[in-house]
């Protein structure tokens, strides 16, 4: 089934390419991919694959990877509870994630057990997994799974799912209004083109191909020193492979 989606207001089009790494800069890039099984429903088991790296670019343009991380986890049920997780690096405290729900409680379980990951690539990936899961949770709806009547009554109350830092979930906004009405808002941005750089293997971490009905969250943060000023340039995109 191919569903019709509403165009997100204010979208300007996809990024055409990833910019070159600046001299005297640090680039952090991450990718989180959520893969659903062949048969999709609201409680399907799923897999998440996350990769990230930090690259230091010297004044002469040469680059060096100085921090990397990779995570693979399995989640089950409508709460998307973590049933297995592996990572590199693999701190023993990571076992605290087992049994935690990606829809609520995962960050608390990880932050309580793993206290020294702040600022690292691993720390960012772990922190971003629940947010990537929220986006991926729209896949059954996009796939055509019936959701009418699925939302519990408490979710239909104003402010029930907040507070959020995401502007799309602001109180009184279109997404909240649709949630209260029991009809989720499925927004669609412009088609996401390829933004890799064949001429620069350090531009992005290596990530697996996207199968049908998977989602991917890409994040890039460039920090550079330009004329004595610190310049930050960032890019962020969630995308969905329809078929």
Q: Could you tell me the radius of gyration in angstroms?
A: 19 Å
Mean pLDDT rating: 83
Q: Summarize the helix and strand pattern as letters.
A: EEEEEHHHHEEE
The total count of strands amounts to 8
| SSE class | alpha+beta
What is the overall shape? globular
User: Which spans of ≥5 residues are poorly predicted at pLDDT below 50?
Assistant: none
Q: What's the N-to-C terminus distance?
A: 11 Å
Portion in strands: 25-35%
Profile the largest sheet: 6 strands, antiparallel
Strand order of the largest sheet: 5-4-3-2-7-8
- Tally of distinct domains: 1
Proportion of residues in helical segments: 10-25%
Number of helices, counting only DSSP H or I runs of 4 residues or more: 4
Give a summary of the structure in a few sentences.
The chain is α+β, with helices and mostly antiparallel strands. Helix content is 15%, strand content 30%.
Describe the structure.
With 243 residues, the chain is of the alpha+beta class. It has one domain (19-146, 193-240). Helices cover 15% and strands 30% of the residues. The chain contains four helices and eight strands, in the order βββββααααβββ. The protein has helices at residues 106-113, 121-136, 139-143, 174-181, and strands at residues 6-7, 25-35, 46-57, 63-76, 81-88, 187-188, 215-226, 229-240. The strands form two sheets. The chain has a six-stranded antiparallel β-sheet, covered by helices on one side. Strands 1-6 form a two-stranded parallel sheet. A hairpin with a 2-residue loop joins β7 (215-226) and β8 (229-240). The mean pLDDT is 83.
């Amino acid at each position: 089934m191919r569903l019709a989606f509403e165009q997100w207001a204010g979208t300007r089009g996809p990024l055409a390419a990833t910019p070159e790494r600046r001299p005297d800069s640090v680039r952090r890039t991450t990718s989180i991919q959520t893969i659903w099984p062949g048969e999709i429903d609201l409680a399907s088991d799923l897999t998440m694959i996350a990769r990230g790296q930090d690259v230091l670019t010297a004044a002469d343009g040469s680059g060096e990877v100085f921090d990397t991380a990779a995570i693979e986890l399995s989640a089950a049920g409508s709460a998307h509870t973590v049933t297995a997780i592996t990572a590199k690096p693999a701190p023993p405290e990571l076992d605290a994630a087992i049994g935690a729900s990606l829809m609520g409680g995962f960050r608390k379980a990880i932050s309580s057990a793993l206290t020294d990951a702040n600022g690292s690539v691993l720390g960012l990936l772990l922190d971003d997994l629940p947010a990537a899961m929220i986006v991926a949770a729209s896949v059954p709806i996009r796939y055509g799974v019936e959701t009418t009547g699925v939302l519990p009554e408490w979710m239909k109350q104003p402010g029930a799912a907040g507070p959020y830092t995401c502007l799309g979930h602001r109180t009184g906004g279109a997404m909240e209004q649709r949630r209260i009405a029991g009809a989720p808002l499925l927004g669609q941005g412009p088609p996401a083109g390829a933004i890799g750089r064949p001429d620069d293997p350090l531009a992005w971490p290596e990530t697996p191909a996207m199968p049908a009905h998977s989602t991917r969250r890409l994040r890039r943060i460039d920090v550079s020193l330009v004329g004595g000023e610190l310049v930050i340039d960032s890019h962020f995109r969630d995308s969905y492979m329809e078929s």
